[in-house]
C-alpha cells in the first residue's frame, strides 16, 4: 500500500506551552488511522497543522511525497485533502445539494463565474455524492435545519467532492447517538476502502476507535506515546496508565 | 517651545471632553454590543439641558458656583435617565436582532431627538455662561491659558479613575466587566441581565450628558452637535478598541493632540486627519490599540439567512408589470415626476450595490458613498478637463469607482464587523476630503458644474429611459451574480469562513472582488446621477449619503434580494414626500424607522415575504 | 432679543404659498421660486424670510404688478447644493415658477446659477458672495444683489491699509467663501501696502472650529493684526476663546460681516470691541428710507430687522421693479433684459442701486465701521456707507474675468 500522508517531527508551542512536540507518523491509502489521547493531549493542534490551519514551529508534513508544511488550508484542499470539523461547518443559508455543488464548483475552478446559475451546475454529481452518504432524499432541505447526524454526513459528502486522497475527520461522531456513530463510521470505512482514501480521525469514543480503526496512534501531553494495531495499543501499559489516570472514556 | 506646550494642553482639554463621550459609548458597546448612534444625541441633550438649567436659575442661584455646577450635574443625571428610558422602551426589545438593525433603531432615535430639541430650544445657537470660579485664565510659561481648560484636563483622568474603581471595586462593576467578556456566562450565573443593561445605559448616557453639559463654558450649543461628536466618538472608540476604557482614553489623547498639532502644521486637513489616523491604526492593528476580536456585526444570535431560491413566479409577474408601467407611463408625466423616477432608479442601483456586499457578502460598509461619488466625479472630471462626451463619461464612472473599490477594498475586507465598517467610513472620508480640498481639480465645495447629458439624451424622458435601462440592467446583473458560482462562493464565505476555506475558497479574494464589483455598480449610479443633476459636489461622498444607502438596505431587508429595491423606493420616496409635506419629517421618519425595527425586523421585503408565505402555508 | 419665526414656520411655508395680499389682484399670479439654506443658517435666514414676506405683502397690497399678484414658493436646501439643484428642477418643472431667487452659501448659488444657464431661467441671487457667480462662472441668466467677497475685502482693505500693522494672520472657514476672501484680502492689501507680511493662515472646517487650538495657533505666529472670516457658531466660539486667551489684546482685528446683527447679537456682552468690520448699523441708521423700512418690519414682525431682512427686502424690490419694467411680462429673455441696468431703491435708504449690465452685479454697498459694546451687547460705531460701485474693478477688467458671448 502507498503512503498518502507522512508527518515528521511536528512541533507547536503556544506562549511557552508545548502543545505538540516531535510527532511523526504516516497514513496509507485506504487505511483508517485513529489519533487518540486524553483532553489537552494536543490532538486538535496536531490536526490543525496537517491541513494548514496552524503553522507548525518545526517538522514536515508531506502529502503523496509533496511537502505541504505551512500551506494555507485552501491549497492543501486543492492537493486532495478533505476535512470535517468537530463542530460541523456547513453553509447554513444553502440547501444540502448546494453545499455539495459549492465544493464541486470550487474543485472545477469556477468560482469567479458570474453568469450561469450555480444551482444548475453539477447536479448529477452532487446527487451521486449525497446518495453515497445516504442524504439523497434531503437534497432540497436547507442545511441550517438539519439534524446533527445529517450535518455530519453532509460534511462527509462535501469533503468527498474533490475526490480526496486523504480525509481528516476531527471527532466525526461527537454529539451523535450511539447507533448513528456506528453507521457513520461504517460508511466512512467503506468509502475509504472502496476509493483507496486514507482517513485520519480523532475520537473520544473508544468503542468507535477500536471497532473501526485499522491502526491507532496515542498522544499524551504533546508526545506520541504509542502506535500500532488496536489490540496492541489496548494492551500498552503506558496507554493504560494515561487513560486510567484520567478515566478511560472522555466525553 | 512654550507655544508647543500650550498647544499640547489644548489637545489634552479636547481629549478629556472626547473621552467623556467615548467612555460611555464604549461601556455600552462592551456590554450590549449595540453600536449606539444616539449617543451623540445624549451629548447634545446634556448640553441643552445644562444650558436651560444654568441660565433659567431662580434669583439668588444664578451665577453662583452651586447653581452652575448643580445645573451641570443635574443635566447629566437627567440625560442618564433619558438614556435609561430609551433602553427600556426600545433597545431592550431588540437585543436579539442583528447589530446593524440595532444601529438603525438608534439612528431613528437620533432623528426623533433632533426634532424634539428643535421644538424645545429653537434653531439659534445658544451661548452658555462661563463657569463661576473658572472664568479667567492663568499665566503658564508667560502665556495665558483658560482655567476652565485646565479643569477639563483634570476631568478626563478623574473620570477614568472613578470608572476604574467602579468596575474593579464594586460587585456591579465586576458584573459589567464579566458581561463585557462573556454575556452568556453572566446570565448563566442567574443575574438579572435586564437590570444590568439598563444600569449600563444609564451610566453611559450620563457620561455623554456630562460631556455635553461641560461644553457650555467653551462652545455654543447647537443642533449640529450630535452628529459632529458621534463620528469623533466612534473614531475614538474604534481606534482604542471596542469595549476598552483604557483604549478609549489613549485614543482620545491621540485624537485630541492630533487636532491641536495638526492645526499648526496642516490647518486645512483637520477634519480628515482623524480618519487618516483611524485608517492607519486599523490597517496595522485590526482590533484597535487595546481591543480584542469582537463578534461579527451580524451576530451569531441572528438566524442564518434564508436560501436564495429562484425568483417566485408572482414576483416575476409583478416585476414585469412594474417594468411595463415604467416604460408606458412616463411620457404622460410632467418633467418633475420623471426626474423623481430618475432619482429612484439611481437609488435602487446604489442600494442594490451596497446590499450585494452586505447581504450575500456579510460585510458592513459605512462608506459606500465613496464609490457613488467616485463614479460621479469620474464622469464629471472627464467632462470638465477633457470635454469628454457623455458615453465616455458614463463608461468612466464604473471604472473609476471599481478601481477605488479595489484599492480601498483590499484593506477593508480583511477586517470584520464594526472595525471593517469603520475602516470603510475612514476611507470614504478621505475620498471626501480629496474632493473637498483639491480645489484646482475637483472645484472643492463648489463642485463641478455643467455636467449635462449629450444632446440626444437631453430631455428628461429620454434620460429616464437611459437611466432605467442602466440601473435595471445593473440591478438584475447583481441578482444574477448572487445566484452564479461567484455569488454562491460569496454567500459561502459569509456562512462559514472555516468551511469555505476548507473547500478551496479564498474568502479574501472573493470578498475583495465583490467589494470592487459593488463599487463599480455604485459608480454607475453615481455617474447617472451626475448627468441627471448637471453637477457633482463633495456631498455626493458625504457620510449622510452612506447612511442613506445603509437605511435603504436595512429598511428593505438585508436578507432578501428584492429588499434594496423596495428599501430605496420606500426611503427616498418617503423622505422626499415627508420633506415637502411636514416640518416634522425627521420626527416622523425616526418614528417610522423605530416602528419598523420593532415590528418588521426582516425589513419591508421580509415582511412582504412572510405575509406571502403565511398565506400559502 | 427678538424671536424669529423658527424652522417650523419656515418649512410650513415651504408647502404654502405666501399669504395673499390685502387686495385681490387680477390676473394670473407671478410665481417666484425661492431656495435658501433655512435649516442650516437660521440666524440669517429667519429674518430674511420675514422681510421677504413683508415685501411681497406690500407689493400685493399696492395692487401687485399690473394687477398680477406675487407669489413665492419657498424651498430649503439645507446647505447642500445638490438639494438646491433638485429643488430648482422641482420649482421650475412642477411648481411652474417664473423665476428663481435666493441662495445663501456660495456653492449653492453657483449650482443654481448653472441650473439657470442650462435651463434658461432667470435667477436673482440674493446673498451668495462668491465672485465666480458673476465673473468666472457668470452667465446671462444670473444676477446677484449683495456686495461680493471681492467687494467686502476691498472695503476692509481700505481701512486695513491705514493701520500700522505689518504682520498679519488670517482665519477663515475652510470652503470657497473663506478661501477666496482670504485670497482677495491678501492680494489687495499687498497691492495697497507692499511691506505687509502674512505670517499664518487658519482654515477651521465650517461649523467645526476647534477654537482653543485655533486661537493658540494664531497667537503663536505673533501677528500685529488678524483678518477674520469666520461667522455664526464658529465666530462665537472663536471670540470666547480669543477673549480668554488674550488673542485680541494689543492687536487689531479686521473682520468680514461681523458687524451684522445676526452674528454680533448672539455674542451678548462678550462681543469684541474695536474690530474693523463690514455690517449693518440697524439701530443708528436713520435715513428716511431705512426708517420707513425698519418701522414697517417692526410692526409686522415685532422685532428689529437684521441684515438678512434688508437683503430679502431689496431682492423683492428689485424683482418688482424689473417686472414693472417688463409690464408684468414673465417671458425669461424679456426679464433678463429688464434686469440688465435695472435701478431700484435699497432699504438702506441710500438711494438707488443698479444691476450692472457688464457683469450682473448690483452696486449695493455695505457699512464699514468699528464694533463697540453698548448696553451689554455689540453694535457698530464710526460707520460709513461704502457704495458698492466704488469697489468694483474697471469694466475692461471685469470683461476679462467673465466668459463673453
Automatic annotation (TrEMBL), chain A:
SMART domains: AAA
Domain ABC transporter: 5-246
Keyword set includes DNA-binding: no
InterPro entries cross-referenced by the UniProt entry: AAA+_ATPase, ABC_AA/LPS_Transport, ABC_transporter-like_ATP-bd, ABC_transporter-like_CS, BCA_ABC_TP_C, P-loop_NTPase
Gene Ontology MF terms in the entry: ATP binding
Keywords, ordered alphabetically: ATP-binding, Nucleotide-binding, Transport
Pfam family, one: ABC_tran
Protein name: ABC transporter ATP-binding protein
Taxonomic path: Bacteria, Pseudomonadati, Pseudomonadota, Alphaproteobacteria, Acetobacterales
From TrEMBL, chain B:
Assigned keywords, A-Z: Amino-acid transport, Cell membrane, Membrane, Transmembrane, Transmembrane helix, Transport
Main location: membrane
Superkingdom in the source lineage: Bacteria
InterPro entries noted in UniProt: ABC_transp_permease (IPR001851), BCAA_transport_permease (IPR052157), LivM-like (IPR043428)
Protein's UniProt keywords contain Transport: yes
Subcellular location: Cell membrane
Keyword Transferase part of the UniProt annotation: no
Membrane topology: Multi-pass membrane protein
Transmembrane segments: 12-30, 37-54, 66-91, 103-122, 150-167, 196-216, 228-254, 261-284, 315-333, 340-358, 390-411, 418-439, 462-482, 512-531, 551-572, 584-604
Family: Belongs to the binding-protein-dependent transport system permease family. LivHM subfamily.
Annotated protein name in UniProt: ABC transporter permease
Annotated source species: Plastoroseomonas hellenica
TrEMBL record, chain C:
Keywords assigned: Amino-acid transport, Signal, Transport
Keyword Lipid biosynthesis: no
Highest taxon of source: Bacteria
InterPro entries per the UniProt record, alphabetical: BCAA_transport (IPR051010), Leu-bd (IPR028081), Peripla_BP_I (IPR028082)
Secreted recorded as keyword: no
Domain Leucine-binding protein: 30-370
Family membership: Belongs to the leucine-binding protein family.
Protein name (Swiss-Prot/TrEMBL): ABC transporter substrate-binding protein
